[in-house]
## 1
Amino acid sequence: MEQKRIDHMTYLPDMENIGSEIQDKVINARKEYDPDKYTAADVREALNKDSLTPYDFGALLSPAAGDFLEEMAKRAMAETRKHFGNSINMFTPLYIANYCENYCIYCGFNCHNKINRAKLNEEEIEQEMKAIADTGLEEVLILTGESRKMSDVEYIGMACRLASKYFKVVGLEVYPMNTDEYKYLHECGADYVTVFQETYNSDKYETLHLEGHKRIFPYRLNAQERAIKGGMRGVGFAALLGLDDFRRDAFATGMHAYLIQKKYPHADIAFSCPRLRPIINNDKINPKDVHEPQLLQVICAYRIFMPFASITISTRECQRFRDNIIKIAATKISAGVDVGIGGHTEDGSHKGDEQFEISDGRNVEEVYNAIKEQGLQPVMSEYIYV
Amino acid sequence: MNDKLVIAGHEFNSRFILGSGKYSLELIKAAVENAGAEIITLALRRANSDTENILDYIPKGVTLLPNTSGARNAEEAVRIARLSREVGCGDFVKIEVIHDSKYLLPDNYETIKATEILAKEGFIVMPYMYPDLNAARDLVNAGAATIMPLGAPIGSNKGICTKDFIKILIEEIDLPIIVDAGIGKPSQACEAMEMGAAAVMANTAIATAGDIPAMAEAFKKAIEAGRTAYLSGMGRVIEKASASSPLTGFLQD
């Protein structure tokens, strides 16, 4: 018997509501965006402009722009070098827990997926961090599954304090939280917050996120704004490409970042470009119609629309794609990646299972050398806490 | 000819200030040598890495000009400058205060505040600013050693979009005016020097060139040419056509 699910558009009592100014604009922009109405002339016009409007951004994401990939890549490359020079930032994610209260049908951590669950204690987190820092990395991204019960804010804060001992830049990719909680984690040493909206289509979102806090669509969508209000220096945006119409979701992602940047011009803006990946107990999950050319199109569109934004390329993609995309548009790349719990220390065995299958298992040195071989400059950190 | 760039009593033969933040570390030395640069800027946030430190690649004898990039207000700029002195980067500091992630335009107000504090602490303060005469005068009063107005947004390579306003600064301000940001081609660097700028700073234009050391050299030559032209006294440039037979010739009839 189907159980009654909670309304995905209604905030739960403990969730801070900061209003829906940006949310409404993003949702409306997505609704009005029709990728099929653009022509080759629209794409050419967009590519000839110095600075693109949201309408032009829509053109670059349209099927019509599929014939302009080479031109888009050239323009994207010029913008990337102009804004970032030859620098490519390196980092690694550190998963400290994989307990999750949500039922997101595509994710390996979902609460009904039978995997080994684990949570690192303070000592184990420190060991992992030491091992990562020994590879030369100076930026770490702390991740948990989304369980407030098993990984509460104090627990994440403890990890941030440890991280600031070993790293110069500390990012977070954890469950969305309230402004005061972001403020607390900022005080503990975190400076960047990334939240994947997965899909900006609320109807589709509802069918994919069946249980848990994550089901509440608007609370997730407004997380970046709360993070900035809490004092975070930068925020990251992403749709999980392949869940819904990828063009519309990429458009909404760009609009979300655009509106946040407009309202908070000091905030650093970042994009991630994840595609669906196979998970434990479901190797059939795949990115559907988002093949490499489409992924490249999305990444180039982000770059040309917001040339100053950082773009991260995930180990979901293979070595060939990653080595080429850092030449064109991506400015941040992960290395020595392990998406399980406790895999960075000596024997490499996992205490808890992985979130998804990675495609590029190269260690830090290998990625470092690959960046150098492209004539680019690997940068471990370029931020000082003062 | 004894034509030196003098910043707070320090003399330099070269009028080319080179940025270092946008290209591969091993190219820095060649770029400095080919550019004949005596001053190189350095983002302190890039000098902070333990893995590969940019400081190790900068040739000895070159004056470091650490900048406060990453600072979003005067307070952060002041703290970065103090840190820079602590780690041995000297007393020169280029103030950059930016809280706009899109255009990276400097905040003149916060820049003036930071300049005042740091000048009192004995720093040689070189503020990056939006070319506004009133702000420039405030910077002079705050103790700046030079004024570094932008030609165009950082990295835009658009040339001297703010030409008329930089000319006003050159005319009115007695400190060296160093055109910073936006210069995309040697010809534009030359133009800045012809106008009477004391020096030019460039980074992206060189970093994005196919041959970085060669482009550094091209800039060096352009800057020297522009300076020589300025010192020679530029010929009059007439914008409108002029009649070849004088209109007043009838007076002689």
Note: The interface with chain B takes residues 78, 81-87, 136, 138, 168, 261, 265-269, 306, 308, 372, 375-384, 386 of chain A (CB under 8 Å).
## 2
Amino acid sequence: MEVHHLFELEEITVTKNNKSSVANIENVTFSYPQIDSPSLTDVNLDIERGEFVLLVGPSGCGKSTLVRTLNGLIPTLSGGKLDGRVLINGKDIKGEKIHKLALQVGMVFQNPDTQLFSLTIGEDIAFGPENLGLPKQDIIDRTDHALDVTGLKHLKDNFIFLLSGGEKQRTAIGGIIAMDPDLFILDEPTSDLDPVGTKDVLDIIKQLNKEKNISIILIEHKIDEVVKLASRVILMEKGEITLDGDPCEIFSNHEDQMKKAGIYPPQLSEISNILDLNNNKNAMSYKTVFERLMKVLPESDNGLQVNNIKILNARPHLEIKELYHQFEGGAYGLKNINLQINHGEFIALIGHNGSGKTTLSHHLIGLLRPTQGKILINGTDISDLSIPKVAQEVGFLFQNPDNQIFTDRVDEEIKFGLKNMGLNDKEIDKRVNSALEMMELTEYKNRHPHSLSRGQRQRLAVASILAMKPDIIVLDEPTTGQDRAHVNKFMQQIRELNKLGKTIIFITHDMNIAAKYSTRMIVMKTGEVFLDGPTRDIFSRTKDLYTTHIESPIITRLTLDMRKKGKNIPVMLTVDELRSYMSANPV
Amino acid sequence: MRGLFRYEQKDTFVHNLDPRVKLLYLIGISILTIVFGAPWLLILLFLSTLPFWYFLHPSKSKVKSMFWLFAILSLSFIISQSLFYYWADDPLFCIIPPEFPIIGPLTNGIYVYIDGAIYGLIQSFRFMTTISAAMIFVSTTHPSQLITALGRFFNIKIKNKQYVIGLPYEIAFMVSSAVSFAPVMIEECYGIINAMRARGLDLKGGIRTKLRAAKHLFLPLIVNILRSGRQIAIAADARGFRATKNRSYVKELKLNSNDYVFLTMVIIFTGFGIYLSLVGYGSTPPI
């Protein structure tokens, strides 16, 4: 036990002036310690009060570095050399303490688990103000306000570790609201969340901006969801700001540059570009695009290159019969699942968190066993087979690549599974080399897996699975937190595997990915198969999907609405389909 | 069984007592189980914990597992003491005679003593009493209340200066963030093990297979912990952790009238118990 004294309260006063600029970055160049090339090069930026800035750019472009100069994390914690000036509310922050800046600049990070410190929501929200030694009543008022804004009042005394990801992230945001900052920075706050959690978080950010006039800088890959909130878009590439302006203008006039940087414009903007709506102020409104399409799109039954792979003689690959799964507590995770999946199918398994997707997928490799019912692979019941046996038939890719890298060398990593299979050295080497080649990793053969980029680590995880030559590949949310260019590249590789005859089942929350790549969709809801059928049919059932909080892609909704108005056009799933339709049927 | 020592949110007078007072009660009871010697006192002490359970309305399954826990506990004490209670005079019967090869000469024969069985039963009350009191404490005290209590066990204001006795805040913070992060880490572990199994690692083998698995669990787990640790540190800094020595606390521990009544009872109860043990009812080794 230790006795320590509490001294007189030291007043922490913050001057909040009403000048229009909240933050200024002036000629900032920054290099991390022991790295020669600067991560930021001569950056100038001015954030005004009430602005909502969407900051985009490829991985490693310096987005996170840039925002961290605003609250002093860089260079105070990171070390390194920073030239130029950073001003918050007109005051140079050089030498300013991080906790003092925390009252003016709040920051929310990607992983909610590493930003929460207390056991209950209420305590966690009070954590910051308590640290600053604010008066008790002030802390209580701030906590209550934050609970109100985040809609967590009824959960105030709940344990944090029992919350969903979305609720945790809302708690983290609440903790920052309680600090009452003028500028709110959110670094990929929804990457780990499902669509429901994402929507809740974005609603709060929107409310803070609109009602409280708080300036927002948001780093986010889910462009479609956030673009309607932003008043300004900034593109960063290689440590420099290369585009900066009104979202509508940026996405209309610089689509190519954005795509090159791996940032895909929101679907509405892409469609308006095709329709030459770029100079229209409402180019990103559903109504404008819809009316334009109604006017210009010719009616036809042809012109849609449907990207279905023809399965000549469908043989059942995987059969699930009357499958039930009961958890320890007695609740049913799966109820009466009956599915037949044929060789060569490309299936998207969707549904919000807790719907049973993961529980079902874990049954396919034996990580979970049925309480009742059975699973057949090529006609063989797998209930008596060990996981290693099933693993030779079913490859399972988990969401986080770092949780599936166990060794300290790339080639050793691939050997791990092969050794478990008991293969001879010659066969192992052969398979390692071919897997490395297929995933374009040969040159990194001798590297430490953790020195690779996230995308490369994910490809390594796929290579390790592929080497075991499974015929069914199950992927659990393989695309979370990555920019669209990486996602497309990765999915393209999976499509190649599908063409080689592999059966693919992938879990995803990204409906544009499901629309683009899958040929069949299985929608789960409360442990049951809610919808099952060809992707185009499922996405046409917008009302049914809505009950599970799933929205069809915008192009699909547009074409469906046009058909409702009597226009004879096919249902489209992707903007590419619209393009090919329009070139087959010129306007 | 695990549910026996879990906090249950309820609104009873025990829940609403100050955690420090409850902690003192637990300490007091534990002291008495050690200093008491007379069997009837030990039994009475155990019985004194039972009324609390009446107020807590435990679930049937909890009562059932408590009963089994106590039954197993006293049974094992009774059996072990009946076999090895050498102070008794006449054994009830003999299990292994001294002539029995090897074990006989080693143990001088194994007998069952009725005195030993009784002694074991009484001893088991010491443990059952402490366990019962600990369960009352844990199931009525929110973990964060406990942490607050440990951090500011004793708080006094003299001439506008606050004096606090308790664990330093940094330690309390460490405990609380570790407790809240533990479930995340456990989930990560399961994830990694599942990924290993999906790559054909059979965990059903002997100790060597298990060691191999543990070795491979280590790398991703450490990488995760290091990454998370760094992120936690950054997030804590961004929220003013250790910004000032004058940290404020929303939750102030303050004793109310119920607490004072209970505290007085605990002090009298424990004091009287210690007095009894000193005047001849204390624990004395059986001769």
Note: Chain B is about 65% helix and 5% strand.
